[in-house]
Design goal:
396 residues; alpha/beta; seven-stranded mixed β-sheet; 35% helix; elongated
Length: 396
């Protein structure tokens, strides 16, 4: 096993078989379930792994400590991809003390029927292992109510739970300085926007609690151990949780026969000619919404369009807009367009969704096309793209 620092070991596992994280989010590069072991006078395990990987997990633990016992199991987060092996760990180490907060233990009893052998900690409490001291900081709603982080104050290591995590299996190296991290940055944005993004205020609260803490390593439960890039990782989380964005436009559309797509092309061309370089376009029926949500978190402006379908809004666009609304995203602009054959509904439905749920700032005049592009609708689409570009450029 890999020693991170001073008898703190990585004992996690990789999952390259699961197609969808939480049954929702694509995993083209897999995902890691990270767990950590502190081999001190008293031995502490920090979080577990998904239960399907328990055989490998227990082998990793025993490779470090041999026949010694585990004294503590610290549970920072009760989501089953991190808590799923608790019951089996208890079978191997029946005298282990499980450390968590009050909300941890309510969930643990519900998931696994365990309510004994526990050590309840409150914000600011500590446990001495010998050389290492563990200090506990409660971070509720990042992104479950029981979440907390554990600080090894001896070696300035933060065991961060799901905070600062990202999608992607670890391909040999564990610590960021040992690996090429290029593939992880956008996957961190996608992980944050899809999993944590709704909870910007709790993330800000957690960052404030940790603002004055010296950190040499961040050990999240997914993705690399951060060491070289700690400042970049924290800055990224800070920016995303403030809903700060780059200049750019996400244009996503639904289309059945290509006519609505042609509207999107006109809008994109006009925005580009007006001076916007960061423009990404997505067919909402082809690209998984996970990636669209990621880029909405990255860029300030969103322009959406879809046909009228069954006297309502095209299904995939309706789903996407409601997903975005559920994230409580702030400080964004929106424009919209639509098409119909004999009865217009899509444009009105997009406006209704924005007014009632999404609540982005409208920019430009919506375009409603009947059947196919005309010279007039081309001009209207160009005007919408140009209006959004000018709105962004005015903020430079």
């Amino acid at each position: 096993m890999i020693e991170i620092k001073n008898k703190v070991y990585y004992v996690g596992v990789n999952d390259r078989n699961k197609a969808l994280f939480e049954g929702l989010w694509p995993l083209p590069n897999g995902v890691s379930y990270n767990s950590y072991l502190i081999d001190d006078e008293q031995v502490a395990l920090i979080d577990t792994v998904e239960v399907d990987f328990f055989t490998q997990f227990i082998e990793n633990i025993q490779e470090v400590i041999g026949s010694r016992s585990l004294d503590y199991l610290v549970i920072n987060h009760m989501e089953p991809d991190h808590s799923g092996s608790i019951a089996l760990i208890r079978k191997y180490y029946p005298n282990i003390k499980i450390v968590g907060n009050k909300k941890t233990f309510g969930m643990m009893q519900g998931f696994y029927g365990i309510d004994d052998g526990i050590v309840e900690v409150k914000n600011g409490d500590s446990i001495e292992l010998g050389h290492h001291t563990l200090h506990f900081v409660l971070t509720p709603m990042v992104h479950w109510p029981e979440t907390m982080v554990t600080l090894d104050t001896t070696d300035n290591i933060l065991f961060a739970g799901d905070a600062f995590g990202c999608f992607g299996a670890l391909n040999g190296g564990i610590i960021d300085e040992e690996i090429n991290c290029d593939t992880f940055w956008l996957e961190m944005v996608r992980y944050y926007s899809n999993i944590v993004g709704k909870y910007g205020v709790p993330v800000q609260n957690a960052l404030k609690k940790l603002a004055d803490v010296k950190l040499d390593y961040i050990c999240a439960t997914h993705g690399p151990v951060w060491h070289q890039y700690i400042d970049k990782v924290i800055a990224l989380y800070d920016r995303m949780s403030r809903y700060e964005t780059e200049e750019g436009i996400v244009i996503c559309y639904g289309t059945m026969y290509g006519n609505t797509e042609r509207m999107a092309e006109q809008i994109a061309r006009a925005a580009s000619q007006a001076g916007i370089k960061n423009i990404v376009m997505y067919n909402v029926s082809k690209t998984h919404h996970s990636y669209i949500i990621r880029d909405v978190f990255r860029y300030k402006a969103l322009i959406v369009g879809a046909p009228t379908y069954n006297a309502g809004l095209y299904h995939e666009m309706d789903v996407l807009l409601n997903e975005l609304a559920n994230k409580d995203i702030k400080n964004h602009y929106i424009g919209w367009f639509g098409s119909h054959c004999w009865a217009s509904k899509a444009v009105a439905e997009i406006q209704k969704l924005n007014d009632e749920r999404l609540k982005f700032e409208p920019v430009g005049t919506p375009v409603d096309m009947k059947q196919a592009l005309t010279a007039e609708t081309k001009e209207q689409c160009a005007a919408l793209g140009k209006a959004m570009a000018e709105k962004l450029i005015a903020e430079r």
